[in-house]
Design brief:
alpha+beta, two-stranded antiparallel ribbon
């Protein structure tokens, strides 16, 4: 059997849109390095966040 990991052991990132931390999910196992946003909502709102950074 595989070793169970506690949630605190999972890698995490900060979402550039909402500035909240999000943790690794099993569905992201193959593409964790490419994941930038915590949700579809933040992915869709990414242009709004970049506009706020420029002003």
């Amino acid at each position: 059997m595989g070793r169970n990991r506690s949630k605190s052991d999972l890698p995490s990132k900060i979402c550039p849109v909402c500035q909240r931390p999000f943790t690794w999910r099993k569905k992201w196992a193959d593409c964790w390095d490419d994941v930038k946003y915590c949700s579809e909502r933040c992915r869709r709102r990414r242009s709004e966040a970049s506009n706020n950074d420029e002003n």
